[in-house]
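Q: Predict the assembly, please.
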Amino acid sequence: METGSSTPAGSEENFEDFSDGTVDYQEVEEEENKHSIIQEIRNELSPEGASSSNGFKKSESFASVRSKDFCESMEDLDVSPDDYFHDKEWIQKRKHIFILSSAGKPIYSLHENEGKLATLCGTLQALVSFVQANNDTITSIVADGIKFVFLIRSSLILVAATRDNIAVQQLQMQLNDVYNQILSTLPHMTKIFEKRQNYDLRKQLAGTERLIDHLLVNDTSNKKITNNVFTTLTNTVQVLPLSTAMRNNVTSAIQNNCSKIRDLVFAVLIANNKLIVLVRMKKYSIHPADLRLIFNLIECSESFKTAESWTPICLPKFDMNGYLYAHVSYLADDCQACLLLLSVDPNVFFTLSDAKKKITEKLRRSHCLEAINEEMNNRGVNLRTIGIPEMRHFLYKCKVSAQLLCAELTHPYSSPSEFDRLYSIYCDMYHRIHNNLRPLKLIYHVGEKELVLAWVAQAYELYAVFEPTIDKNLVIKLVNKLVRWVEKEQDILFIKNHPNF
Amino acid sequence: MKAIEAKVVILGSEGVGKTSIVTRYLKNVTSSDQGPTISASFFSCKLYLDGVKVKLQVWDTAGQERFRAVAPMYYRNANAAILVFDLSQHKTYRDLKMWAQELQRNVQDPMILTVVGNKLDLHATRTVSREEAFLFASSIGANYMETSALNEQGLNQVFLRIAEGLVRLANENKSQTLRRYDSSNSISAYSNVFADDDQAFHLPSVHLGIPVEEGDVHSSDVGRLETPSWSIDHIAHGSVETTGWCCY
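A: Predicted assembly structure:
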């Protein structure tokens, strides 16, 4: 057994943020309770605002205490003798994710029922506390060809296990996304665990599993092949291509109708997992990881299509200690773009509802709805139409804005197994380029089935996959052609600045 | 008094059909799987009752456990609550007691409570008897009705009864949060689109269909599937004001 562990400080280095993140995650965690951005905004906006929110908080904690049915949750935990260790199908899964409480209670498993994994979770918890006893933190171990990667947070232990050749950092990033997803629905989780260390979180999480599954499962498992998975890999978001004039129209429609609403922090318009416009309160911005949580929530929740919703949501990178209140609605029946208006005030639903109606009307008058609809079916850059058919697929990450541009997935990567292979290639390349010990600028790799180029320039990172037979000179020519094309079209493909209200 | 505006909250366990009830009543949509509600959705509708315009702001809340902590946000200042359970799932019925207690403790103003046993279409497998549910409803001062969102049975009655109760409440002048207006055009507090009266439906105050009265309980303890004498075409539907899409 090979043990790779490092000091807590060392493990934090793995979470390098490639974008200029607003708030560093670990810092926030340590400063918990000391500093809350949401409180800050409330106080800034209205001196009496801080007190008005207390009324709600009291009843909130009242309800959450009332609803805990402790006895029942204990019964669910009965250790069952027939666990999954003899289930071939379970063992052969490519990736497993387990979440347990720091007391070793199973909370979530990607495959099958976590309730039957009490023994496994006990073992994992023992490993964690064994290393912790030496004032160290376990990062990963490899046993029998399976890589176990650990992420330890104040009240949870998250573990990924896989036979694939995926970097530890990659898996930790995924685990971190999962942790953020949990925080996003249960920001008060830490407090629950403070009160009762062996509380069974599963009851509170019911309904969130869907969101976690969706974050983790490679899209191929539901036979849907999309570029969305690459945003997690590269820590970016995708942007809906839109002409500058149209995007400005959308922006001003939002600004004109929202500028007078004082407590509004963000307005986010998205369609098909792509960002259309983000308007923000001065000084504040949304981290791409938080945006991905929003995308995930919208993608997983059909119910938002039925009616306007008003939901509290926690954006952990923005402020992990409190809720923002989100007015969520689709623009119109004939335009399935989703608008989120995020406020710190829980009582402004009707103001936002009104603003949303006006925004939709304005967008319809200025023909923005049609423009958005036209682009909604855009599944990525078509390499044939831009004259680079020898390139099979690429990822272009704009580093400043943390935005990702992808090629349309076509043959041969349109079958699930080949797409999985492409994903592994990109994972491998990404890991080698961003290796902590020896970061690289350029990789040129000729494989049996394809030729891969990874290139880190000052403003962007480019990962491109070619036919295996073409020569190096042509590759260089084609890459230059692509980069020039992207530069020419950048105002349409990326959003340079997120405007203020 | 010509018009009242009231906040209605729908509460109940996961999967009992809260969203189905409100969407079937308001939109007449048939989509069966909308997925679970996230926190709460908002609908609005209005009814006419003896010349009084009753505008309902309906909050359809999520049943999932994790949203319980935020429920107070939606039932605070509510004037009416619809407590929904699934007739074929006894657990969902037991959960209502918790909701009833929570409302009693946290809402000061008088409220129109309605207990609704949904999924009457599954009456063959019902686990909650009509008598039991009726007695519980009476014990918390609520009306009891049985509905089938699937077959659109009893939905109009639920909302009509609530509207009646709200008018009564407004006449008694006991509720501080219930908004009363002397002109039927005053309900435009937060939106300009509601002025279009054709969208609302006018009904005399009638007692039709499913509301379960005491005598009824004693006559039989077996759930009966009521087929109303009117068909769905005879009654105009309360329409959801999906306002804002200006080009119809």
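DSSP finds six helices and eight strands in chain B. Chain B has a mean pLDDT of 78.
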